[in-house]
Amino acid sequence: MDQNFAGATAASVDSLPRQRLDAAMAQVNEVLVGKNRAIRTAFACLLAGGHLLVEDVPGVGKTTLAHALAATLGLSFRRIQFTSDLLPSDIVGVSVFDRDSGAFRFQPGPIFAQLLLADEINRATPKTQSALLEAMAEGQVTVDGASRALPQPFFVVATQNPLDMAGTYPLPDSQLDRFMLRIALDYPDAEAERRLLTGENRSAMVGRLSPRLADGDILTLRQRVHAVTASPVLLDYVQALLAASRKHHDIRTGLSPRAGLALLAAARAWALLGDRDYVLPEDVQAMFVAVAGHRLIPARNAGRDALAQALLDSVAVE
Amino acid sequence: MKRQHAPPGTRVIASTLGALPFNLLCLTVLCVLAAHAPHLPAWYTAMLAAILAARWWQRRHHPRRVQAWLRIVMLVAVPLVVVAVYGSPFGREAGAAIVCGLLVVKVLESESTRDARMTVGFACFILMSALLFDQSLGFTVVVGLMLLPVLATLRALEPGPPGFGWRAALQPGSVLLAASLPAALLGFLLIPRLATPLWGAPDNGAARTGISDRMAPGDIQSLLTDNAVAMRIGFDGAPPPADQRYFRGMLLWEFNGRAWLPGIAARRPWPPAPVDVRGPLIRYDVTLLASHQHWMFALDVPIDTPEGARMGADHTLYSTRPINQTLRYRVDSATDYRLDPEGLAAGIRAAALELPDGFDPRARALAARWRAQAGGSDVAIVRDALNLFHDGGFAYNLDAPPLGRDSIDDFLFDTKTGFCEHYASAFTFLMRAAGIPARVVVGYQGGYWNDFAHYLLIRQANAHAWSEVWLAGRGWVRVDPTASVSKVELANTGGATDGFDAGGSDWWLPWQNRLDIVNRWWGQSVVGFDDIKQSRLFHPFGIEHATAQMLGIALAIVVFLALGLGALLASLRPRTRPRDALAAAQTRLQRKLARLGIVRGNAEGPHDFYLRSADELPESASTLRELSTEYLVLRYATLEPPPERIRGFVQRVRNFHPRRVVK
Q1: What is the CATH number of domain A17-218?
Q2: Is B637 an 8 Å CB contact of chain A?
Q3: Exposure of A7 by Cβ count < 10 A (0-12 exposed, 13-18 middle, 19+ buried)?
């Protein structure tokens, strides 16, 4: 939305986190050229407190996105390359016997990070996948009967390649539901690609990125997202979309209440990114495909994103 | 944006035709050309289609009118070309060719929505005029379906929401078309029709195939491969056996050495010759399709004369007016009869023996030899002639070789190959040369008996020629010399053999024969639904003769009931009421904008809609921006909007009068 009629009524008091957020988005935009919308969606996901699934062919910048996010947000970053022999303990950590103290000591795994990049998540066995997904849902891990809280904020960016399916364990629909948003990066347009080809090495650029957010900014902004107004008319619209997904004849399984919560949260975050403290139907529409695309189970062999778009087009807005 | 595409120096037309309505308009015109293609020269249709395609291509790349001089040249060229082809701008075909050409010229200059609407109206009229040429069921259905692009174009010319495409344009048209069927049926049944049409299309009878009043070798040939329906006959009782199915049309008396003509004898107003009927009469109904001739066909030999017809001395039936529409009549015929057995009048006898001098000496010599051998026995001479055809090496072949000046001699002694005309002609000649009164009969023979619907279907391919000879004591006796030919050559005939196996050329003809029942119903019940049938419409209700007034009253009652039913259904449908004053005001605003062609999409968000409206109405952009902010805040930023602010918004919407400034 280049133009804005909706009125910038967002609280101007303490606008510093907000300004820093804009600076952070601008910095990531510099690294990933021409991916404004995907980056904005990733930020919306972060602010809404969800986890992000990036699904695309190799080489379009999935990993670069995660690196740039981590460096820009000033979060502790760990990366796990998922393989078929990866074990759950390789993720959550393991208790080892400490000869000095004569007791078991917990050696935390890579999951104890604020931003976790789970690369090619569909290459690991379901057992390992579920260890991660459980941690994502609970915000804590349990090892040897002891629960350990994960650091806050805890933001997982998982990637998977939709084409190369040989030797993979595709995430079941129930597990896909754990990801609030799913995005695709897609090929850059001609202009962006030229800038990419003539520009600097991306990994060198990422190495030089500096954190743009202060400690606690993310949590402050998340609270602000919670406070964004969703009027009764807007809730009617969200409910109408959910109801339509359950009645649509091309959809076998419609959207769950959890999907409804995710949609509302993402729309609130999107409204905040648009400098508003209330949600518009356009915010819901902007997030709908990213929220619903991977959650709808088509009755026939239909494209999920196209189905989500068709669903969106069929529900009237006030 | 539109300005960027326009080349410098051209005027930008205010309500420029969009790509979708223009494409649909081209499709509509293409349909019109297709509907008229069967009766226009193929090159003419192809030329118009090519001009249309060029215009379509041109507008895709540069949206503007075709240069004026080119349009004027075409405007002049179309009538000139038509006059050059048809010899006159008048007449059905020429008229159709002119209007089709002008329609395409009109597309060349259609650049605004107003032009397009006029073109659609024009196209609609020309499309319907195609029914003047062909009223068969299949063609009517095709023309009806061609109304779909017409309606889709009209829909696409109206403002639509963003993303409005082909499917959305076609959908209301198909619904409308389906909904109009009962209304059309109602109008068809109840709108009083005139006994005579208000206007008639000039007709080009010569272009029609059918039996003509002249028979020269090869004349019927084109007919015998024509599968068009000639007539249908329903019998009151059982149909006559297959070998009795001879339908006489006209008699040819006069031979001029080459062709057989009706001659003076056929034109003399003598009373019908006396008939001695032996067996039971056969009663039947004939539905004769328009032939543009006077002949009426009847089973050999008709006894009575239907209304509007006249019976000649030789028991042929003539219509007093040319048969330009499907004609139904009822006749009684006798198949077992003695026609004129008492003795021939001197004039008739002379006409039935007359031969031109100086032609066919070998045939005359052969006939003289037969006469010398047979003495006084005419029957023996007839038998001699039939034996000659049976054993003399004659062959049946539609692809007969050409004959010279002495056509009978050439046929009898040299080529020995031909079809019904050759045999009837040669046989009649031989009989006359031997002194036996003889004449040629032209009509139809055979036909397809539809056992399901109990009628006999006669196609043009059933056309046939045979002979009648007058034998003392027995009167005129039908002799079919073609029937005695034993050898049938099917090479190059396409399998058509007149009379006996009518046009077995097409593998699908048997299916056509079976399906003809639908065409018969269409012809009798729909095309043939005239004022007389209409007046019998209320027969089941005890009204013998319905007047125009009664029909009008019935029409009014049915329309009133239908409207009442529609109103009832509409009132039963749940209405989506605006949820509150704010939504009502927003709806009013949308209606005001829709009148200017800015229609909100079903799923278009309010913010997006306001943005788009401001884009399209730059003059009202600031007002729209204020209204938008107010609406979005009241609707989405406040949980309980204060009533005075809602009232304020309602008032501002009421005072908002957007206008589109046309440049």
Answers
A1: 3.40.50.300
A2: yes
A3: middle
Nearest to B20 by CA among B175, B169, B122: B169
Each residue's pLDDT tens digit, B37-72:
998 999 999 999 999 999 999 988 877 778 889 999
Q: Which residue of A has its CA nearest to B641?
A: A231
Distance from CA of A315 to the nearest CA of B (A): 6
CA distance B468 to A238: 92
What is the ipTM metric for this complex? 0.84
Q: Would an 8 Å CB–CB cutoff place B622 in contact with chain A? A: no
Of the spans A208-222, A293-307, B297-311, which averages the highest pLDDT?
B297-311
B420 is catalytic: yes
Q: Kindly report, residue by residue over A1-38, the tens digit of the pLDDT.
A: 445 565 544 444 457 788 888 888 888 888 888 888 89
Name the CATH architecture for the domain at A226-318: Orthogonal Bundle (1.10)
| Beta carbons of A78 and A116 less than 8 angstroms apart | yes
Q: Which amino acid is at A62?
A: K
Residue range B287-295: mean pLDDT, rounded: 84
Hey, how many other C-beta atoms are within 10 angstroms of the C-beta on B337? 21
A140-163 per-residue burial string, b: 16 or more CB within 10 A, e: under 16 = ebebeeeebebeebbbbbbbbbee
Percentage of residues of chain B with pLDDT beyond 90: 21
The whole-angstrom separation of Cα A278 and Cα A300 is 37
State pTM to two decimals. Answer: 0.59
Is residue B26 part of the annotated active site? The answer reads no
Among candidates A282, A315, A318 on the partner chain, residue whose Cβ is nearest the Cβ of B583: A318
Rounded Cα–Cα distance for residues B285 and B330 (Å) = 4
Torsion B349-B352-B356-B358 (CA) sign: negative
Residue whose tokens read 């082909």: B166
**Which listed residue (B360, B378, B409, B480) is catalytic?**
B480
- pLDDT value at residue B89: 82
The structure tokens 């023309």 sit at B143
Q: Do A5 and B586 touch (CB under 8 A)?
A: no
CB A252 within 8 A of CB A23: no
Give the number of beta-carbon pairs within 8 Å between A and B: 78
Contact between chains at B602 and A316 (C-beta distance less than 8 A): yes
- Note whether B602 contacts A: Cβ–Cβ < 8 A: yes
A153 preceded by a cis bond (ω within 30 of 0): yes
* pLDDT for residue A303 is more than 80: no
Nearest residue in chain A measured CA to CA from B577: A318
Domain ranges for chain A, please list them. Answer: 17-218, 226-318
pLDDT in tens, A230-252: 999 899 999 999 999 988 888 88
